[in-house]
Write a structure and sequence with these properties.
This protein is an all-alpha fold and 462 residues long. Helices cover 63% and strands 1% of the residues. The chain is built from 19 helices and 2 strands. It has a two-stranded antiparallel ribbon with strand order 1-2. Helix 4 packs antiparallel against helix 5, helix 8 packs across helix 9 and helix 10 crosses helix 15.
Length: 462
């Protein structure tokens, strides 16, 4: 039985309101509905051109616009995020145009060289030039044509109102230009942030078209009588929501929106744990022939439950609920989603249930869809291997959670308050703490400081 939670701690306010993500979700769903129904719309309005569903990659890219604009408007008009001190901007203390011109030119130099290095990495890395990544390279190449000239007026404008315009980009520019006053710690912060953005933005863009095309093109007839097909369609829709909102988060790292990357995770372990889960390393570790391949002879939940319609509906509903929780965890970020970064603190939505709703939902989804201990080969060895390796994958996500928390605990007192609140009040976090703490109390080498903390706040278990 879970002990009653103390009531002394209060949940800190979230840096992102629920309305931001909901606005983006509404915009995205309207666009998906438009794309699905375009043939009828074109027919009614007598529009020229082919009258077919808009399921192509450019429609998927346009979905970013319909997701981003409502979130930007909500952030500025309702939440007024541009007026927060955390932006580093003082709108009442504008300096004259050109007053910081040397600073701005140095910053632009730093930005352009950063982009050139990232572009060189794209060119050298072979995996970016085949399969789904080709679309991402086309998009980024086209974006560079616009971003390079637009960066000049943007930097000149923002530098007028920044309290301290000498940020990481400026320090990197100074280092490149031979300035001895460049702060190497800020240069490292700058490169951690841009390495994260460069790596994950390309990945997110690469997976946009396939999921969007599936959702727009899927045939809805007969779904009500087919629990597996209905579940798969809902999975696809929820994953599209996750990817679209998440991609917006990687692209909109802007100070006037208070969505800039305040810091990238400084721990090597965090980077290793995260990068293992994404191409190209994910194929070596979790792919079909990977080190941790856990789907050998596993036909999955629909195979094992075939013939039992009621159980298929029930199991499918559970999987859809987990996928919805996973998507909700991304939507809750609004325009601030990204891996390995600190961009403010979320305490609302699914983060009232657990500190890591996406990781919990994703791992439970894998266990319940794959059922690694049930194999069609009849081999006990396959069943044991699958189960052990999927447990290892879940362990990697536990590792990610620990390193992410270490980063945020070091950065923000609000997160420390939220961490303590979740340990006592978030039901999933409390449950896992109760289950695992009896085993941890015998771990040697715990410091007195660690032992003095509340038991369920010492070791996050999601």
């Amino acid at each position: 039985m879970i002990p009653a939670a103390p009531t002394a701690l209060q949940r800190p306010p979230s840096d992102v309101s629920a309305g931001v993500g909901l606005a983006g979700l509404c915009g995205l769903l309207v666009w998906i509905a438009f794309c699905r129904n375009y043939p009828d719309i074109a027919e009614a309005l007598a529009l020229p051109g082919p009258r077919m569903r808009m399921a192509g990659p450019h429609a998927a890219l346009a979905a970013l616009f319909f997701s981003a604009v409502p979130m930007i408007l909500w952030s500025l008009l309702v939440d007024k995020v541009h007026r927060r001190p955390s932006t580093g901007i003082d709108w009442q203390a504008k300096r004259p145009w050109g007053a910081d011109l040397p600073v701005s030119l140095t910053k632009i130099t730093g930005l352009w060289i950063t982009w050139a290095i990232i572009a060189s990495f794209y060119c050298l890395a072979r995996w970016y030039w085949s399969g789904q990544y080709l679309f991402a390279m086309e998009v980024l190449a086209a974006a560079a044509v616009l971003l390079v000239p637009l960066s000049i007026p943007y930097v000149l404008w923002v530098d007028r109102v920044l309290v301290e315009p000498r940020d990481g980009a400026w320090h990197f520019g100074r280092a490149i230009l031979g300035g001895k006053d460049a702060d190497q710690s800020l240069v490292l912060r700058h490169w951690r942030a841009w390495s994260i953005k460069g790596f994950f933005a390309a990945f997110m863009l690469s997976i946009l078209p396939a999921g969007f095309a599936a959702v727009v093109s899927d045939d809805l007839s007969g779904l009500a009588s087919n629990p597996v097909a209905l579940s798969v369609l809902l999975f696809e829709l929820l994953f599209v929501i996750d990817v679209q909102i998440g991609t917006v988060g990687y692209l909109l790292t802007l100070r006037p929106l208070d969505s800039h990357i305040r810091s990238g995770n400084p721990f090597l372990g965090a980077w290793i744990a995260a990068l293992i889960c994404y191409p190209p390393l994910v194929f070596a570790f979790m792919g079909e022939n990977g080190i941790l391949a856990y789907e050998v002879a596993t036909p999955g939940w629909a195979y094992w439950l075939e013939g039992n319609s009621a159980l298929l509906y029930l199991w499918g509903a559970l999987l859809v609920a987990l996928t919805a929780l996973y998507a909700w965890a991304t939507v809750a970020f609004g325009i601030r989603f990204s891996n390995l970064t600190y961009r403010g603190v979320l305490t609302n939505g699914p983060y009232r249930l657990t500190r890591h709703p996406a990781y919990v939902a994703k791992n439970l989804f894998w266990w319940l869809t794959v059922l690694p201990f049930l194999v069609s080969s009849g081999s006990a060895v396959d069943a044991i291997r699958n189960t052990v390796f999927l447990a290892c994958v879940s362990g990697i996500y536990y590792w990610r959670a620990r390193t992410e928390e270490a980063h945020l605990l070091a950065e923000d007192a609000k997160y420390r308050d939220y961490h303590a609140w979740a340990a006592r009040h978030a039901p999933v976090t409390r449950l896992l703490g109760v289950i695992t703490d009896p085993f941890r109390r015998w771990v040697p080498g715990r410091s007195d400081e660690t032992a003095a903390l509340p038991a369920t706040s010492r070791h996050p278990a999601e």
